[in-house]
Amino acid sequence: MAIDIDTIEAAAYEIMSRAAIDIPEDYKDGISKMGRTEQGKLACFVLHTMMDNWDAASKDRRPMCADTGVPRYYVKVGNDAAVQTGFVGVERALRSATARATHDVPLRPNRVHPLWRNEYNNNVGINAPEIEWSFEPDVDWIDITTVHKGGLFGTDYRMLFPGDGLDGIKRFVLDGLIAFGKRGLACQPAIVGIGVGGSKDTCMQLGKQAACLRVVGDRNPDPRIAELEMEIKQMGNSIGMGAMGFVGSSMVVDCHIEVGFTHTGGMPVSMHTFCLSSRRATARIHADGRIEYRGDPQWFTPYMRRETVEWPTETTVTI
């Protein structure tokens, strides 16, 4: 059964609104816990004020931050899914939903041409909004996630060498967090996403996905990476900076790390901060037209992290 394209656009429009207005429960819970342990007076004040702001935004159905970031989409397509007008139609539906939501929610029209600075007042333009695709075997649904992430600061990249090891990664992240806090380049507490490996562009993608598409409290299935995530989180909260750079211990609400096989001679690393306005929402559109909404994108499935040539099924063997 082919999914109706109007259903796709309706779901995309709805999650645009939800992402702008309603903070996901996992992030709210993480900030609430930080608010109970933060000793810095100004940092504690910021945390509680933000939680009050989130409640007011949800009650009034207005965006919780004046800067609604740059909307983007992550689409996970079931291998058995079909769409009424094909996937070119999906892209058109997502662009249309973005334009309508920009006007209706409203979202701030942040997108402009990088050289001529012209814009269409709808967050749509050349290569905007970004749409990233992934696939999932043996299902017939489509997941659409929107993320409204700030598009200016809070990101860094460095090409390390294998000899730099884990200490080099930690030093790079701490250098970045301190610089961001001192210069006001990120809105803490942030979910810190770290990409390690891959090519340069893949490294950047993995870091952003790690920040934006995993929930607070989620750990990488590799126990050694999970241990590194917790260590970096603890280190980030021990540098003396709290919410919005004030003195305190609430710099990192969580740390997520994703990896990709890379060139033998290097170790690219990227860092991304998903700020105090952690805006994401997901819709699953089933083949029968049902739509389910949630806050957890469930992007990094075992299939996404596979190391095999062939994905194991009843008739294939892991290699």
TrEMBL record:
Identification of the protein by name: Fumarate hydratase
Alphabetic keyword roster: 4Fe-4S, Iron, Iron-sulfur, Lyase, Metal-binding
InterPro entries tied to this protein: Class-I_Fumarase/Tartrate_DH, Fe-S_hydro-lyase_TtdA-typ_cat
Family label: Belongs to the class-I fumarase family.
Domain annotation Fe-S hydro-lyase tartrate dehydratase alpha-type catalytic: ranges: 11-283
Organism, as annotated: Candidimonas nitroreducens
GO molecular function terms noted in the UniProt entry: 4 iron, 4 sulfur cluster binding; lyase activity; metal ion binding
